[in-house]
Design a protein that fits this description.
heterodimer; A: 113 residues; mainly beta; seven-stranded mixed sheet; four-stranded antiparallel sheet; 0% helix; B: 109 residues; six-stranded mixed sheet; 11 strands; 58% strand
Chain lengths: 113, 109
Amino acid sequence: GAGVSQTPSNKVTEKGKYVELRCDPISGHTALYWYRQSLGQGPEFLIYFQGTGAADDSGLPNDRFFAVRPEGSVSTLKIQRTERGDSAVYLCASSLQGSGGYTFGSGTRLTVV
Amino acid sequence: EDQVTQSPEALRLQEGESSSLNCSYTVSGLRGLFWYRQDPGKGPEFLFTLYSAGEEKEKERLKATLTKKESFLHITAPKPEDSATYLCAVVGGAQKLVFGQGTRLTINP
């Protein structure tokens, strides 16, 4: 596609529920990144994929967070047992081989009530 | 650990009033310093990449400069449509963007 697509754009869920956030990167981009942005803050790194494998998952806050990219294209960020503190905008970016030119999607606004 | 600090946190200017935003950084093996613009409810939009001290890049009313410790985003004769949050980020050896907290810029007509 022409840009990075994230769905849904908004998600409201109840505390304790499971959610999946989807990212469809620019075609041909092998590097994919997930970030989390709280109100008034800069984006905070979560995880980076190079192809199908997670090259760096050091930003995942705990084991309730997990991400996959099974075919090296679309990625899904999965959050189990959601907590109110998980409420934020989740941003996805892709890059050609992680060499710069990072393009961001519009994000998914997650609200845990 | 790579770190980025932006100042000021917020800046209000009158239309036509030039100013600069600061980005101070520490990074192991700088591979690039990036400036992004972010409008409310949207993802960051790429503006510039700078790779080495002394480098400068310009786009319309914006000019980015880089030293070994900081970067400046100069805005000349701004217009209300330049109002946004401006984000600075660095990429070092870890090959991931590390962002500052951003500067919220408001241009009053």
